[in-house]
Design brief:
- It is a single chain.
- The protein is built from 2 helices and 8 strands; from the N terminus they run βαββββαβββ.
- By secondary structure, it is of the alpha/beta class.
């Protein structure tokens, strides 16, 4: 018995429309499905990441802020592979997203950088 792959990552956002725009328009993820769950007063947006991965974006009323800086226990960040980090960074900055300086991983010699989603969730870009 073994785990085959990561199927999805679930993210809870404070402002659904702002986060939906960020993940679909700025990051370019394709919408798989979107539903409103009346009993939870919550939207659930399924987004395709490549051919085999998904993000589930949830909204709930009155969610607490994410503890991030200093680092808190739990999920540290999401990382996405890109072919051309400079082009992706240029696209993000042209849309008003603050992106950290691109660095080089001392072990792999690959370039990477970080930025945050509208709720401060750290997102890494890692050049393949």
């Amino acid at each position: 018995m073994k785990l085959e792959k990561i199927h999805h990552v679930a993210i809870i956002c404070a402002d659904y429309e702002k986060s939906k725009r960020f993940y679909t328009k700025i990051l370019g993820f394709e919408v798989i499905s979107e539903i409103y769950r009346e009993e939870q007063q919550s939207f659930k947006l399924d987004l395709a990441v490549g051919d085999s991965f998904q993000i589930e974006l949830f909204s709930f009323p009155d969610v607490p802020a994410r503890a991030s800086y200093p680092e808190a226990a739990g999920l540290r960040h999401l990382a996405f592979a890109v072919k051309d980090i400079a082009a992706f960074v240029n696209n993000l900055t042209s849309q008003g997203v603050d992106v950290e300086k691109v660095r080089v991983d001392p072990l792999t010699k690959k370039r990477f950088t970080f930025f945050s989603d509208p709720d401060g969730l750290p997102i890494e870009l890692y050049e393949e």
